[in-house]
Amino acid sequence: MSYPQQLTPEQKLAEAKQHLSIPHIVVICGSTRFMAEMAQADLRETVAGRIVVKPGFDMKSPHGLSTDPADTEVEADAQTQTQVQVLKARLGELHRAKIRLADEVLIVGDYIGDSTRAEITYARSLGKPVRFTHPEVAHDS
Q1: What pLDDT digit, counting tens, does each position of 49-67 carry?
Q2: Is pTM beyond 0.90 here?
Q3: Among candidates 127, 105, 88, which has minimal Cα distance to 28?
Q4: Residue 63: its pLDDT value, please?
Q5: Cβ atoms 95, 30 nearer than 8 A
Q6: How far apart are CA 123 and CA 51, in angstroms?
Q7: Are 141 and 118 in contact (CB under 8 A)?
């Protein structure tokens, strides 16, 4: 007697997206210094008929999430720095979830830093295809 093979969560997600006719999903990754380029990539991918997910904001730019003007100071207190680290960790996990959701990863920009390199490694460990807006930096990953 043979039993039907159980589907992995990833296989269930892929089947659900296909069943619901969800278009191809692209997650944009890269240094937040390329936020303007990410917006352009979002436009190109959307016009091509793809759903795009990307970083929500740049932690280095004013973002209005804090009402304390001291939070934008170069030398913030330890409590503020801890809050920033907690937020960065939470946003990192959220971005990894976006990578899990996506069908492929698009790396934007001509620079690959440690965080982007880690995202590429994570995506490849999941078997996600990785594309580059600047293919010449692919060797850096």
Answers
A1: 999 999 987 777 765 555 4
A2: no
A3: 105
A4: 57
A5: no
A6: 17
A7: no
pLDDT at position 83, please? 83
Q: Do residues 91 and 65 lie in contact, with contact meaning Cβ atoms separated by under 8 Å?
A: no
Q: What are phi and psi of 8, to 5 degrees?
A: -75, 160
Quote the CA–CA distance of 135 and 64 in Å, as a whole number: 35
Q: Give residue 92's identity as a one-letter amino acid code.
A: G
| Mean pLDDT of all residues belonging to the chain | 87
For helices 78-101 and 114-125, what crossing angle results, to 10°? 30
Report whether 29 contacts 119 (CB < 8 A).
yes
In this structure, how many other beta carbons lie within 10 angstroms of the beta carbon of residue 130? 16
Alpha-carbon gap, residue 78 to 64, rounded angstroms: 20
- Token duo for residue 39: 């917006």
Q: How far apart are CA 33 and CA 61, in angstroms?
A: 10
Q: Which of 24, 44, 46, 12 is nearest to 103 (CA)?
A: 24
Give the whole-angstrom CA distance, residue 99 versus residue 96: 5
